[in-house]
Amino acid sequence: MSKTELIDRLAKDAKITKKAAETALRSFVGCVRDSLKKGKALTLVGFGTFRVGKRAARNGRNPQTGAAIKIKASKVVKFRAGKALKDAVK
Question: Is the Cβ–Cβ distance between 35 and 50 less than 8 Å?
Fold first, then answer.
């Protein structure tokens, strides 16, 4: 499903305009981003949890040359699906 299809579905299900649905979606994405930026997890019961994970520094290889390289430690966004979402997908 694309962003446009999601906005259309939100507008239809909530009986609101596409413009209002797009604003709501943008607000939701912003809330998730801001929460994760602050290092806080965002949990939607039954859907899942967005959180920030840490990836340790590690050694890697340049696929073109085969040379060994150092990959810096980084933060990554992780999502863990909730029980209701897992059950719906079975």
Answer: yes
Radius of gyration of the CA atoms of the chain, in A = 18
Sign of CA pseudo-dihedral 28, 33, 34, 39: positive
CA distance 51 to 39: 8
Name the nearest CA neighbour of 48 among 34, 33, 32.
Answer: 32
* One domain for residues 27 and 55: no
Per-residue pLDDT of the chain (90 residues; tens, 9 = 90+): 999 999 999 999 999 999 999 999 999 999 999 999 999 999 999 999 999 999 999 999 999 999 999 999 999 999 999 999 999 998
- State which residues form the domain around 63: 41-90
